[in-house]
Amino acid sequence: MPGPPAGPGADPRPLLLRAVRYAALAVLVAAPAAVPLARVLRLPGPLPVLLTLAVLVPSTAVAVLWAHALGSRGPLAASWPLLGGASVRLLAAGGALWWGAGVSAVLAATLLGECVAALLLAVRLPARRAGGEPLRVRPRVLVRAVTGFAGLWVLTGADLLCARHWLSAESAGGYGAGAQLAKASLACANLIVLLLIGRLASADRRTATRALTRALGAAVLAGAGVALVLAVGGGTVLPLVFGPGFAVGPGLGLLLGIDATALLVLTVLLHYRAAHGGAPLGGWAGAAAFPPLVALFPATAQGIAAAHALAVLLAVACALPGTGLRLGPRPRAGTGTGRVLPVARAEHELDRAARVEISVVVPYYNPGPAVARHLSGLLRVLDRHGASYEVLAVDDGCTDGSRRRVARLGHRRLRLLGHAANRGKGAALRTGFRQCRGRWIAFIDADGDLPAELLPGLLDAARRAGADAAVGVKHLQHGRVRRLCSGAFRLLARVLFRLPVRDTQTGLKVFRREALAGVLPLCREDGFVFDLELLALLHRYGHRRIAEVPVAVRPRTGSTVRPTTALRMLAEALRLGARLHLTPRTTPAPTDPRHLLRALPDNAG
Can you list the alpha helix ranges (DSSP code H) found in 408-479? Predict the structure, then answer.
């Protein structure tokens, strides 16, 4: 945790001795509870509980010594002992599991790692000098910080204790190995804080908030890397590290990775709050929420991981207030709110050049018979709506005969476009957008899970609000794991792109022609993450009036989205975030992109 500034002459020894004495006293007070707690957790004896309690003593020493090293020698000198301790912990735990040792050996490795970190920090202490000023911390600040980070410690280990109590020995071993590897990434959060501590603790709120945004972005990237490793290589990496018999499947690996990502974000937020004198109590909120959440899920490894990830995300939500972060756009002058309000908007040149009121792009790839039924229904809905329209069906290299089914519809307002080979949803949408003649430009998924009847309501909402775009927001009715993955993706979009939109991936959106034409030349994504890229670019270049409309979802009949798509979308979102953050913000959006949204003759078809 960030400690007080310490000059070169400050002596940390008195504070260190006092803090270690209090930690040892706390361990002695809690030690009698080791025996009954071991019975509840079905442990072979009280030793694992005692080892867990003992970690508190060297951890307290590390906190004091790290604060002194940070203030007297700088972030680099304070960081390498922590990395050394984390490396010893991981190697010792891996070796213990490789040789078939139990949970006590793993906890002993944790204790060893903390002791090594404390020793590495202690050997660099300056020689005691007569008259040196002791390092002091106000008791209230110390109690608040220690209490807050104790909550993080309890929350971090809660799922491991639950797995030990509920799961079989084999399942608990696999879960414990995956969770240990995932939570080893928490050292990255400490390193991020070390590198940015000067700015994170700055009295200038704007500087501190910018540093926090960068720290959170780095934490999300580190967590996504862990999620990728566990989801793709959980069956190969874990046996190499921990020995044969320790492995996790892709689903559990992804959940553990999401859990680790949320823990990384929470750790950064708690450090930030502690540096600014706030109460870092988000960890206790998550720890309190975990028992009722885990009761809602099945007593399986995936159920425990999902419940713990939700508890950590709740802790993140509790830690956000007071940080100064804005997850949405800044309020416009005179509104006092970030909500979309009805406004009078002057007509734009590109609006006047439009030939029809709305163009609807429908990209499809091997959807089967569903696409013809969906398009037929869409054409009927638009006929009844009364506004002039066109529908552009874009075949993204189908091989199942869908193009022939669409062509047989033969509607005068239906235009057929296509690719010779499959290029992705984003590429198909760009192909359709460039041929649109509408004042408003929309797209809707081809699989029929979003009823065509929703489109007129979305268009009316955009008109009433004078919005740059209107997006559908799904009410999720899928399984718990899918809801968790969707929630994690939404959190990732908010942290990386500061988007105010709750659901970026719903396949039903409407854009004002001027707004879409201003950012379309900058779009590069070909896959499902194109939706996120488009909304991020709109937000980046000032088209921030986005209306959100709740939509109902039908059961899927022919969707090409598969469970593995979630992992690919996560990787694509991280790559997109890196690309947009590296692109200079001074790059202007095109001001007259009529060559991209062509106003074709009325009889074009």
Answer: 425-433, 454-465
CA atoms within 13 A on the CB side of 575: 12
Query: What is the Cβ-side half-sphere exposure of residue 207, based on CA atoms within 13 angstroms?
Result: 10
10-residue averages of pLDDT along the chain (605 residues) = 46 77 83 79 75 81 75 67 78 72 74 86 67 58 65 79 76 79 75 72 75 86 85 76 73 87 86 70 79 83 88 84 53 38 43 77 92 93 91 94 91 92 93 93 91 92 92 69 63 75 88 91 88 91 90 60 60 76 54 46 37
Half-sphere exposure in the Cβ direction for 426 (13 Å, CA): 19
**Per-position DSSP letters for 185-248, written without gaps between them:** THHHHHHHHHHHHHHHT-SSHHHHHHHHHHHHHHHHHHHHHHHHHHHHHTTTHHHHHH-TT---
In sequence order, which residues have a C-beta less than 8 Å from that of residue 141 and are 6 or more positions away? Answer: 4, 277
Residue (of 163, 508, 119) closest to 305 by Cα position? 163
Task: Tell me the C-alpha distance between 284 and 583, whole Å.
Answer: 39
Q: Where are the alpha helices (DSSP H) in 527-583?
A: 530-540, 563-582
Sign of CA dihedral 40, 41, 42, 48: negative
Token pair of 133, please?
A: 């000023």
DSSP state of 134: B
CA distance 568 to 375: 28
444: helix, strand or coil: strand
Between strands 356-364 and 414-419, the pairing is unpaired
Specify whether the CB–CB gap between 34 and 60 falls below 8 A: no
296: which 2 tokens? Answer: 């809602």
- pTM given for the model: 0.50
Beta partners for 396? Answer: 419
247, 176 contact by CB (below 8 A): no
Instruction: Report phi then psi at 421, rounded to 5.
Output: -140, 160
What does each C-alpha distance from 286 to 60, 183, 317, 550 come to in angstroms?
22, 16, 10, 29
Q: Which of 523, 527, 525 is nearest to 560 (CA)?
A: 527
d(CA 285, CA 138): 25
What pLDDT does 496 receive? 74
With 0-12 / 13-18 / 19 or more C-beta atoms within 10 angstroms meaning exposed / middle / buried, residue 81 is buried
Phi, psi torsion values for 439, nearest 5 degrees: -65, -40
pLDDT score of 335: 37
From 421, 413, 419, 407, select the one nearest 371 (Cα to Cα): 407
Q: Contact at 8 Å (CB) between 43 and 52? A: no
State the Cα angle at 579 between 230 and 350, rounded to 5°: 130
Q: Which helix or strand (DSSP H or E) is residue 362 part of?
A: strand 356-364
Instruction: Check if the beta carbon of residue 520 is closer than 8 Å to that of residue 597.
Output: yes
Counting Cβ atoms within 10 Å, is residue 76 exposed (0-12), middle (13-18) or buried (19+)? Answer: exposed
